[in-house]
Design brief:
The complex is a heterodimer. Chain A is mainly β. Chain A has helices at 25-31, 67-72, 146-151, and strands spanning 14-21, 41-49, 53-61, 81-86, 89-95, 101-103, 123-129, 132-137, 143-145. In chain A, strand 4 and strand 5 (89-95) form a beta hairpin. Chain A is globular and about 50 Å long. Chain B is built from 10 helices and 9 strands. By secondary structure, chain B is of the alpha/beta class. Classes of the chains: A mainly beta, B alpha/beta. The A-B interface holds A 110, 112-115, 117-120, 129-130, 137-143 and B 12, 14, 87-89, 106-111, 113-114, 117, 128-132, 195, 198, 201-202.
Chain lengths: 152, 306
């Protein structure tokens, strides 16, 4: 008989971020301020994955990600899949596409960037350079790799 | 003629199209040949210098006055409401209600773009931190164009502090569009940043690093000198590099006759005064071109047709 027991409890309504590369779950939680919604969040780390050995998973009750929200995750986990859940069923499955711009999520790593001192939202242009994803700040025009933006 | 720069901000040299850049160059050289004193008649310009500047501020203010415009402003942010904590955003909303255009110099990277986003009149970036200095780049381009007759496929050597020098960053970004080739001569700790060399790679421009200033002078069509600031090094380190990036007349004996030495000024000892007397020296003419480049910017931004 097939074992249908889930490693992380199912949610009735909300969003499941699945197939996060193992080890990136905490980064996603922190960078995208997922706990700030104030809703119940359940996470699983290093869960068995049929395709990649192990994976992380995040389930957020009562919050529906838009396509825009989902695509922002592609900066860190382009392989992740975002499932919208209704009545315990997958109502929509979203594969991720790297966005052209990303706003609000990150602070500019350049401490002299005027965006830190003014009433503006951060804004980055996402670009591919030598096979790597880079972010260029709209204000100070400096280009950063994902890691320095994530750690800023 | 109608112009595409009318009522536009000038924040970053990279935002100008080839057509706009050419128009700015042509207008600067036309104004140099045939000065006009009517292009800013009836216009009031704010000159907002939150950090000290000599050449940029004086040449912008000269440009406004020579074009028949009027000025308000300040040369020291310490005497403004910024000292009380007023944001640039609020200052932009207020000042743009008074004037027809704002020229701004500020120490923070990206400050000109923020002012532009909150201003109801065009904003001209007079330098924002280590980021952009488009009017300096434009005067450099005017000077290169004037001395070489073209901006295409030139050999450009840059020497000195290539890490912190925003003039060399902006100039490289502008010249990459014209298929130029670059040689960078600097202490290794002050090398051209990777994000600039990555941009040159993307644009398909050749670039190389050299430790030999004389070799660079012989290779180049333009040798762009900048100052290595002593305070960037400890005494022992500075002793190792001292003089290595200083140019003298003897080093130019095998340079191309048309090669010109440029410098954004002020210089200290990186260009020996004996270079001044050679036909290669062009840095003082370059400084004079600053007025014409800025006259060109102001005229085109504030006149639908000129």
């Amino acid at each position: 008989m097939k074992n249908t027991k889930m490693s992380v409890e199912a949610i009735e309504n909300g969003t499941v971020i699945d197939r996060i590369p193992a080890g990136l779950g905490l980064t996603i939680l922190r960078q995208f301020k997922i706990l700030h919604h104030g809703e119940a969040v359940t996470v699983g780390f290093n869960l068995p994955s049929q395709t990649r050995g192990s994976k992380d998973i995040i389930k957020i009750s009562g919050v529906t990600f838009s396509e825009h929200d989902a695509n922002r995750l592609a900066l860190f986990a382009p392989e992740a899949v975002v499932n919208l859940i209704q009545d315990y069923q997958v109502a929509k499955k979203m594969h991720l596409t790297l966005p052209v711009t990303i706003s609000e999520v990150f602070r500019c790593p350049n401490t002299n960037c005027a965006s830190h001192f003014e009433p503006v939202r951060s804004r980055f242009y996402v670009k591919q350079q030598n096979g790597e994803t880079k972010l260029k700040c709209h204000f100070c025009e400096k280009t950063f790799d994902r890691k320095s933006v994530a750690e800023a | 003629m109608a112009n595409p720069l009318y009522k536009k901000h000038l924040i970053s040299i990279s935002e100008l199209t080839q057509e706009e850049l050419q128009l700015l160059l042509d207008t600067a050289l036309a104004l140099k040949k045939n000065p006009r004193s009517d292009l800013l008649k009836g216009k009031l310009i704010a000159s907002c210098f939150y950090e000290p500047s000599t050449r940029t501020r004086l040449s912008f203010e000269t440009a406004v006055l020579r074009l028949g415009g009027q000025l308000i402003g300040f040369a020291d942010g310490g005497n403004t409401s910024a000292k009380k904590g007023e944001t640039l955003a609020d200052a932009a909303r207020v000042i743009s209600g008074y004037v027809d255009a704002i020229i701004q110099r500020h120490s923070q990277d990206g400050s000109a773009r923020i002012t532009a986003e909150f201003s109801s009149v065009p904003v001209i970036n007079g330098g924002d931190g280590t980021n952009q200095h488009p009017s300096q780049t434009l005067l450099d381009l005017v000077t290169i164009y004037e001395t070489q007759g073209s901006l295409k496929n030139l050999k450009i050597a840059m020497s000195g502090d290539l890490k912190y020098g925003r003039t060399v960053h902006s100039l490289a970004q502008a010249l990459k569009r014209f298929g130029c080739e670059f040689m960078f001569v600097s202490p290794s700790t002050l090398a051209m940043p990777k994000y600039i060399t990555d941009e040159l790679d993307e644009a398909g421009c050749n670039w190389q690093i050299s430790n030999d200033l004389q070799q660079a002078a012989e290779w180049a069509d333009i040798l762009y000198m900048t100052r290595v600031q002593r305070e960037r090094f400890d005494a022992e380190e500075f002793a190792k590099i001292q003089g290595k990036f200083n140019l003298n007349a003897a080093m130019l004996k095998n340079a191309k006759p048309t090669m010109r030495v440029l410098h954004p000024l002020p210089r200290v000892d990186e260009i020996h005064p004996d270079v001044d007397k050679t036909p290669h020296a062009y840095y003082f003419e370059q400084a004079t071109n600053g007025v014409y480049a800025r006259m060109s910017i102001l005229s085109l931004i504030l006149n639908e047709e000129i």
